[in-house]
Design a protein that fits this description.
This protein has helices at about 1-15, 20-40, 45-55, 65-85, 90-105, 110-120, 130-155, 155-165. By secondary structure, it is mainly α. Helix 1 (about 1-15) crosses helix 5 (about 90-105) and helix 6 (about 110-120) packs across helix 7. The longest helix has 26 residues, at about 130-155. The chain is globular and about 50 Å long.
Length: about 170
């Protein structure tokens, strides 16, 4: 079944390349992004579609899109418990992939990855609720400062938020 294939692949990668697992995720990301470039190569609107995928449309996200993302997020959190028991690592990766794909469609690749990586990097080495709260505060502050800078200087919102998070 696909579950057992995913489980075997995930465990194999974690056993074979434990120190490189993040690099493997990066490689998969680059391959997926390159595949999008190849798929859009002959599209008359390819450059605009690619720009939207990378940068997103943070200021133009609709309430309906946010409501859909909230609903899917809740469903993913509910699915985590049974899937996490059945497929601890592979289940996480599957749910994470779905969440990331939906998030990218709303705000773009740059902002999704910056939001995941930069606050976590800032609290690296710390543990517990305080670290979680500090990471969340860094994320909220980065978004607020980035959006304020974008508004004040008439800059792209997503890129401004990425730099504010950094």
């Amino acid at each position: 079944s696909s579950k057992s294939c995913a489980r075997v692949a995930s465990r194999w990668a974690e056993r074979r390349f434990p120190a490189q697992i993040e690099a493997l995720i990066g490689v998969l990301f680059v391959l997926a992004a390159s595949a999008v470039v190849l798929l859009l190569a002959h599209s008359p609107h390819g450059p605009e579609e690619l720009k939207g995928l990378l940068e997103g449309q943070l200021l133009w996200v609709t309430r309906e899109s946010v409501a859909l993302m909230l609903t899917v997020s809740v469903l993913l959190l509910i699915a985590w418990r049974p899937l996490g028991r059945a497929l601890p690592r592979a289940g996480f990766h599957v749910l994470f992939a779905v969440a990331i794909t939906l998030s990218v469609s709303l705000v773009g690749i740059y902002l999704v990855f910056a939001s995941l990586i930069l606050p976590a990097l800032a609290v690296r080495g710390r543990a517990g609720r305080r670290a979680w709260a500090r990471g969340m505060a860094i994320g909220v502050a980065g978004y607020a400062l980035g959006l304020a800078a974008a508004w004040a200087a008439d800059l792209p919102a997503s890129a401004s938020v990425v730099w504010a998070l950094a």
